[in-house]
Amino acid sequence: MARSTLTVFFENPFWVGIYERIDGDRYEVCKITFGAEPKDYEVWDFLLKNWSKLKFSPPIKAKQVEERKINPKRMQREIHSKLQEPGIGTKAQQALKLQHEQNKHRCTRGTNKIKKKF
Fold first, then answer.
1. What is d(CA 69, CA 16) in angstroms, rounded to the nearest whole number?
2. Cα 62–74–83 angle (5° rounding)?
3. Contact, 20 vs 38, CB < 8 A?
4. What pLDDT shows up at residue 116?
5. CA distance 6 to 19
6. Any residues with CB less than 8 A from the CB of 20 and at least 6 apart, and which?
7. Measured between alpha carbons, how far is 45 from 51 in angstroms, rounded to an integer?
8. What is the DSSP secondary-structure string of 33-89?
9. What distance in Å separates the CA atoms of residue 3 and residue 24, rounded to the nearest whole number?
10. Which of 2, 36, 48, 115: CA 20 to 30 A from 92?
11. How many Å apart are CA 37 and CA 16, to the nearest integer?
12. Which residues of the chain have pLDDT under 70?
């Protein structure tokens, strides 16, 4: 039974997709660079148009994984919880982003005050 997954993530400075496919005991992977953040329909369109051009890695032997059935409600809860996670990044990156946002707000408030004086 063939199975495949596509994971899209941000790898500075581009959005990248990792397409994995498992067919029996064969595991192959392909890296796709998108550039700007792709929309769902753009990813789908890309796969339809460029499927034959994708360069997969040489197959390696993968152990057979028995696929377990997941209750649809459980899957929906898992997806919702994954979407609520803060995203990829270290605490340092998150702190720097927060500092950057605060500085942006200070700068915009400071320019408004200057404009009012004139």
1. 29
2. 85
3. no
4. 46
5. 4
6. 4, 5, 6, 7, 27, 28, 29
7. 10
8. EEESPPPHHHHHHHHHHHGGG--PPPPEE----PPPP--HHHHHHHHHHHHHS--S-
9. 9
10. 36
11. 9
12. 1, 64-67, 86-94, 108-118
Which are the contacts of 67, defined by CB distance < 8 A and separation ≥ 6?
Answer: 1, 3
Distances in whole angstroms, Cα of residue 113 to Cα of each of 8, 56, 68, 95, 110: 43, 57, 61, 27, 5
Phi-psi region of 51 (alpha: psi -120 to 50; beta: other; left: phi over 0): alpha
Residue 92 is predicted with a pLDDT of 67
What pLDDT, on a 0 to 100 scale, did the predictor assign at position 103? Answer: 79
Residue among 83, 85, 84, 86 nearest 94 (CA): 86
Residue type, 118: F
34, 50 Cβ separation under 8 angstroms: no
